[in-house]
């Protein structure tokens, strides 16, 4: 019900305001054509959206992103499902190269290394971006050590290998800051408020946050809000990330 009311108030331009009459809101909603896009939707939220869809004006579109598509099929009667495919090998190398080298393809002398490393993880864009960012500015000698390092993560999925590789390369101060961000009170909060809360007398938190953002371990929105991908959050919450000298 909370999501249902929030969507109605937002779409009807009544943000942060209580809707006095739900029937009136639904009637107004029926006369507006909307495009609604929601990510990381739970089963309960899908059910609420199913109720909301009854009032959509013809021509409106509702797009929801959910990890388990079978939940959508079983519980909510979703009619159209689009399964996002992995990038092709060429696209994967391009994503990886932009993060590692700042260009669409590896520079001369790094092509073989880049191809070998990029093939060691599934072409999941987040993993490619994190791994590429962690290798930015590294020497050829350091690149040659990457395959063995990734293969040593025996119990991790491909995306987890990329996250762990980046985490292992952090200094102890960066690691401590990164783990502090596992506290959900910082998510979606203004970066300036987080800096004030996390600041230490001998540590530049602002630069530390920027380093984590450069590594794609966190992101900072245009509005200055701190965000972290669910897959990274889950590794932090599970305690699977430990500092390696």
UniProtKB/TrEMBL annotation:
Record InterPro entries: Apaf_helical, Disease_R_plants, P-loop_NTPase
PANTHER family: LEUCINE-RICH REPEAT-CONTAINING PROTEIN, TIR DOMAIN-CONTAINING PROTEIN
Protein name per UniProt: Disease resistance protein TAO1-like isoform X1
Source species of the chain: Camelina sativa (False flax)
């Amino acid at each position: 019900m909370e999501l249902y009311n929030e969507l109605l108030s937002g779409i009807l331009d009544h943000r942060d305001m209580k809707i006095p009459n739900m029937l009136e809101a639904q009637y107004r909603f029926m006369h507006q054509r909307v495009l609604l896009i929601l990510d990381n939707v739970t089963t309960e939220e899908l059910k609420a959206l199913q109720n909301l869809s009854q009032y959509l004006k013809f021509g409106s579109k509702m797009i929801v992103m959910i990890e388990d598509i079978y939940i959508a099929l079983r519980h909510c009667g979703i009619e159209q499902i689009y399964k996002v495919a992995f990038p092709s090998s060429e696209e994967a190398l391009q994503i990886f190269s932009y993060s590692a080298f700042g260009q669409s393809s590896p520079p001369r002398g790094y092509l073989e290394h880049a191809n070998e490393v990029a093939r060691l993880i599934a072409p999941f864009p987040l993993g490619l971006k994190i791994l590429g960012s962690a290798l930015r500015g590294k020497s050829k000698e350091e690149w040659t050590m990457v395959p063995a390092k990734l293969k040593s993560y025996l119990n991790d999925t491909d995306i987890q290998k990329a996250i762990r590789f980046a985490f292992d390369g952090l200094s102890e101060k960066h690691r401590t800051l990164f783990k502090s961000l596992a506290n959900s009170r910082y998510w979606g909060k203004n970066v300036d408020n987080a800096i004030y809360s996390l600041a230490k007398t001998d540590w530049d938190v602002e630069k530390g946050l920027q380093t984590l953002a450069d590594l794609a371990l966190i992101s900072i929105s245009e509005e200055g809000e701190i965000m972290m991908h669910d897959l990274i959050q889950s590794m932090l919450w599970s305690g699977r990330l430990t500092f390696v000298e």
